[in-house]
Each structure stands twice: as structure tokens, then as C-alpha cells.
Predict the 3D structure of the following.
Amino acid sequence: MATTASVYIATSLDGFIARENGAIDWLMDANASIPPGEDCGYADFMSTIDVLIMGRNTYEQVAQFDPWPYDGRRVVVLSSRALVFRRGAGIQLEASTESPRSLLTRLSAQGYKRAYVDGGQVIQSFLRERLIHDMTITTIPILLGSGRRLFDTLPREMKLRLASSKSFEFGFTQATYLACADA
Ligand SMILES: NC(=O)c1ccc[n+]([C@@H]2O[C@H](COP(=O)([O-])OP(=O)(O)OC[C@H]3O[C@@H](n4cnc5c(N)ncnc54)[C@H](OP(=O)(O)O)[C@@H]3O)[C@@H](O)[C@H]2O)c1
């Protein structure tokens, strides 16, 4: 069975995932204000993931997190550069220069079921190849005004189906969209 490519990401109301310089302080601040124990479905989502695919920019951000957030899971970092990876127990990092389609084909052949695709440019490249199966997007009530975009132009439009949506009393909204097979 083919590996499903899934997105789980937070954006500002105006569609940015980070400031121009890559900072996510606004997201950290927002997350710090939510009730203890609330994770907006992240742990449930992660329990369905057996591999992560992320862009080099996202890797450089998460490499600073302590502890390493993807303990025991394989993480493929897309980059054209020679990367020196963080090392440690439970860290399974590898670099790839493959196209989204080639990478997913390889992961499928290796038996991976569901990939978490992360990073704005990488998500955009998977969308351009129509490889994203589902997207859970949490919207934070802030207008950043500028920054790094979640979405960019596409060669043609893509219809989506709203699978679920919810609002949290602390102001976040979350929607899960499925890509329509024929669109
Ligand atoms: N709001 C959130 O929930 C959230 C989630 C994730 C990340 N972020 C933030 O978003 C920023 C990262 O996103 P980003 O859009 O700047 O970059 P990104 O998608 O994480 O990384 C882009 C880089 O990945 C490499 N790459 C290799 N193959 C690629 C491909 N097929 N498609 C696209 N990129 C490919 C390129 O690096 P080379 O130059 O090395 O070739 C490219 O510059 C960070 O600041 C991170 O903290 C926020």
C-alpha cells in the first residue's frame, strides 16, 4: 500500500507558518497560553505516523528542541546540501535529495504507512505533485502581516473535502481537509 502523506501544521490567520526570519515565537507564545494537557490532537496524530519528511529549514528549527521531539521515528530531511545531523539515542535522521514522488515511492516499498510532511516549501512541493492526502491546519488568531507561507501557487486548483473542524475556547480553530481523489 502507498505511503499516505499528511500535514499537521499551525498557521497565523493570514497564512504564515513562521516569520520572515523563520521565528515561531508567536506560535510558542500562543501554545504557552493553552490549558495544561491540551495538545490540539497532536499526540493522536503522531500516534498514526511512522515516518517524517521535512525541509532543511524546519529541521534546523527542530534540531534546537530539547528533548528531540521525534524519538524513535525515522526523519527524512530534504536538502540539496551536505547536512551534519544532530546525533543521540532515539534520533534517526537521514538526508534526501529525492523528489517528493520518488521519496514516497521508496517509503511505500519499505512498508511505511503514513508520513508527516512538514515545512512550508516542502508541503508546497508535495502539493504541486498532488501527493498530500490530508491536512490538519490549526489557525492561530494572529495576523503576522508577513512571513513564510504555508501555501503558494499551484499549477492547477485542488478540491478538498472538509473532514472535521473544531474551535477551542482559547481561540484556535482546527480543520482537517482531505484531498479529493479526482481533483
Ligand atoms: N507553524 C508551524 O506549525 C510550523 C511547522 C513547521 C515549520 N515551521 C517553520 O517554518 C519554517 C520552515 O519552513 P520553510 O517553508 O521555510 O522551509 P522548509 O520547507 O522547512 O525547508 C525548505 C528547504 O528544504 C530543502 N528542500 C529539499 N527538497 C525540497 C523540496 N522538494 N521542496 C522544498 N524544499 C526542499 C531546501 O533546502 P536546501 O537549501 O538545503 O536545498 C529548501 O530550502 C521554519 O521557520 C519552521 O520553524 C512552522
